[in-house]
Amino acid sequence: MTDASTPVSEHHHADVSGGWLRPAVFGAMDGLVTNIALIAGVGGGGAEPRNIVLTGFAGLVAGAISMGLGEYTSVQSQNEQVAAEVAKERRELERNPAGEARELADAWVERGLPRDLAEQVADALRGNPKEALRVHVQEELGVDVNERPSPWTAAFSSFLCFSAGALVPLVTYLLGFSSLWLALAVGGLGLFVAGALVARFTNRKWWVSGGRQLLLGAAATAATYLVGRLIGVGVS
């Protein structure tokens, strides 16, 4: 028995339903990797610093717009598909409420709930159509009808974070430095920091998350740098 004076331990979950974290992380990482690799490719081909900056900004603008539009379309399409399935489930509940109640009870029994209790709860839900729809959709589709991600949130998160990530490897050029390797080093630092920050949301070790992202970005950078060197040598 818990003493009334004992403080109740409370814990809070992070908001995983708002639709911003995945596109923000994906946008930032993609912006970093894309522009670091792009700069490495044109720099490896012998491009002048001015052309590298031009290429980097072109990649930033094109990539940010593409990411934003892609995220909007993806999330909106997903929401429309969910809405269509919810409408289908609503029609089934209106047409055959008893059968749907039995189906829900059977699902709960398979999870270990006693048959009489499962049927009692499923029958009780029939008196609350709105809640019945929510529970049926949750059980059958695995989604909450009241917590669908916003396509605009996803689009702006992706657009802004891609732009921020893509700007990092250009910082040294904008400050007047002309060294490709310095720009790549700053980009690599950005990758590590971004990966480490993600660990805050995933409870992974920050240095593991940061190191993983750095290695992945380094692999992409090495590949495009080699391609740039080969094409540059071939053209000259």
UniProtKB/TrEMBL annotation:
Pfam families per the UniProt record, alphabetical: VIT1
Keywords: Membrane, Transmembrane, Transmembrane helix
Species name: Plantactinospora alkalitolerans
Membrane-spanning parts: 154-175, 181-202, 214-235
Name used for this protein in its record: VIT1/CCC1 transporter family protein
Subcellular location: Endomembrane system
Superkingdom of origin organism: Bacteria
Membrane-topology descriptor: Multi-pass membrane protein
